[in-house]
Amino acid sequence: MFSALRHSRDRLAATLRVVLAVGAGCVFSGAAASSEHMLHFAWLRDGQSQLWQFNTAATTTADGLAPQSARPLPATLETPLGSVWKLFVYGYLVERNIATPDYTCSGGDPEEVYCCMKGGHVDREHALVQSCGRFFEPARLQLDPADWRKYWTAAHAPVWLRDLHAMTPTRRVPVADLLAALQSMPARPREAAASTLVSVLTSGRGEGTVSLYGSVLRAKTWTMPDPARPGASIGGAAGWLADGTPVWLGGPGGSARVLAAAAPRIAPLLTQVTVPDDNACVLVDFFSRYPIRQVLGDKGSAAVPDGPLRGDFRIGFVNGNWARVESRGELRLDRDAAGAPQVEGRFGMNDYVARVVEREGDTSQPEAAKALAVAARSYVVQHGNHDHGCFRIDDSSSTQRVLPRAPTAAARRAADQTDALVLTGVPVQYHHDKAAPGQMSWLAAKASAQAGLTFDAILSRTWPQATLTSFESPLSGDCIQVTGAEQWLQHNAPLWARRMDGAAGYETPDLPAVCAVREGRPYADAQRNRVYVYRLQTEEDRIALAHEYIHLAFQHHPRGLDEEFVERTARTLIRTDNPIQ
Which end of the chain, N or C, is less surrounded by CB atoms within 10 Å? Predict the structure, then answer.
């Protein structure tokens, strides 16, 4: 991605300078005639559908949209579905756990330009980002129209979405209905789609705009011929913000042009979005290289009891030094096996990243801070151990140092605006002032930001071959499938469900992805609905996979943390036909 970054940024800059010389005319049926430079942005937020209209040719393009400048979204404003129909097929496939064979390009089909070269193939996630319509064709996937209707009816989707035959690019729908349809998509497929769609701004049709939108916009692009102007296009994007808000963007020109032209206006509005911090967690072993002697309150000499820490505290080390920490309950005082005190922190991923940004760097140059946020997130994803669904890492100069108090708003903003973004395909290291192959210098990053480089361009200087994507996306390559495991689990899980039905705490989980564990022991990741095992060749391998599946099946009950129960149940399922009590 980064190898083409300079060119994509040049295209973006040129797009933002060019006066769009295409007439909007009747861009969207039902809308009043627009100026030739008018773009539309709408969202469904707090039960209200709102619309902004703005002229990209205005001299004040640097001025962002303000919430108070919105008006109610007219019911008459319509849009073609364009490529957005693929997003609804994607969501249905995810929720129904439908196997999707890769699409193989035969050559000669003009539509395959969005898919692959002749003889190549494309998977579901890449097909969504690249907008490969051939992959998502309902006939190829043998989708059942009756089950499609049942699924979207249960989701309370608009009537048109319940008709599988309506999933065509030319289908026109009210924008308000499209926003309602996006909101109706259940959480699991919506989150899966949103994680994949982050890559639209880093390597898809919106490449080059991640510097302005950050990762807050997760949208499927669309481009269609303009019926009012032969040879011209209309386009835009539709999807969600990081907090799940449904959004739609439309205007004259193709999707890449519309995304680029709209970015200076929309991006400031998106900075007001509160980014949730519940998709991943990080456990931090504080002061891991310095043994703690005692933990005292802010005043006095009384030792603090074990348990959650709330307030200001002083930590005395064996070497005689002292440090101050602040906690609102996210830090906890425990004891190691020898009885020595130790401090552990549990944070949301963005809280953790913000603390690293402030401890290892600063926020005087916001773009450098965002680059450091991506590097810090990449580091913990690559090097953190897995512990009960969280990443675990030391607070240490040999890993990453972590601020033992709440980060500033500026540091948290750097983390939120790059939410979930990581570099994949390369090992990530950084240092205060030493640059090296694969190692970013923080001082050099600040100098680059001061010279006008954006965070993605700063990252490209150190890691030109890296892929910038969400660590929760299959595109990040962090889930290598175990041969035959998912099919084996798909066959056995229903049989196990009948045997475990009625067992205290049992709930049938969604069929998880089965990924190859890279290091350490097999484990289950309930947050991402995955299990990690080594292989599926022997009876012990099958027991290991059953073991991790049982963790998911009892994840909301104390039994799910009882390793003896889980292991006993796994062996019973594999070696006998007995029911589970």
Answer: C
DSSP output for 428-489: -EEESS--BTTEEEHHHHHHHHHTT--HHHHHHHH-TT-EEEETTSGGG---PBPTTHHHHH
Q: How many residues does the chain have?
A: 581
Identify residue 261 by its one-letter amino acid code.
Answer: A
What gap in Å lies between CA 550 and CA 538, rounded to an integer?
19
Residue 38 confidence class, pLDDT cut points 50, 70, 90: confident
**CB neighbours (10 Å) of residue 264?**
18
Whether the CB-CB separation of 142 and 130 falls below 8 Å is answered with: no
Going by pLDDT thresholds of 50, 70 and 90, the confidence category of residue 36 is low
Q: Which fold has domain 485-575?
A: Arc Repressor Mutant, subunit A (1.10.10)
DSSP 8-state code for residue 73: P
Higher pLDDT, 473 or 312: 312
> Any idea which residue has 């108090």 for tokens?
405
Per DSSP bridges, beta strands 281-285 and 217-225 are: unpaired
Looking at the DSSP assignment, which residues form a beta bridge with residue 246? 240
Q: Residue 232 has which token pair? A: 């011209």
- Asked whether 482 and 536 are in contact (CB, 8 A), the reply is yes
User: pTM here?
Assistant: 0.78
Cross-strand pairs, 364 = none
Token match 């070269």: residue? 117
CA distances in angstroms from 265 to 96, 103, 212, listed in the order given: 38, 38, 10
Percentage with pLDDT > 90 across the chain? 69
Asked whether the predicted pLDDT for residue 519 surpasses 70, the reply is: no
* Segments making up each domain of the chain, as ranges: 2-80+173-270, 281-347, 349-476, 485-575
